[in-house]
Amino acid sequence: MFQFDQYLGFLAFLTIVTIGFWLMIFLVSIIPYWIGGTFLEKLKMKREAKKKNK
Fold first, then answer.
1. Exposure pattern of 19-39 as b/e (b: 16+ CB <10 Å)?
2. Cβ 35 vs Cβ 27: under 8 Å
3. Cα–Cα–Cα angle for 21, 13, 4, nearest 5°?
4. Are 2 and 10 spatial neighbours (Cβ–Cβ below 8 Å)?
5. In whole angstroms, what is the distance from residue 27 CA to residue 34 CA?
6. Tens of pLDDT, residues 4-43
């Protein structure tokens, strides 16, 4: 069976993998939303600038 230090190493490994998994899920869900919002905001600014020039 496991010795105590092996058990702690295994728990540390599981913790790091779990944190990495949730970070990946967070980034995959937030970054496209952030990029899309920035793109739409720039599009609105360009449309407003065109309206001001006319």
1. eeeeeeeeeeeeeeeeeeeee
2. no
3. 155
4. yes
5. 10
6. 899 999 999 999 999 999 999 999 999 999 999 999 999 9
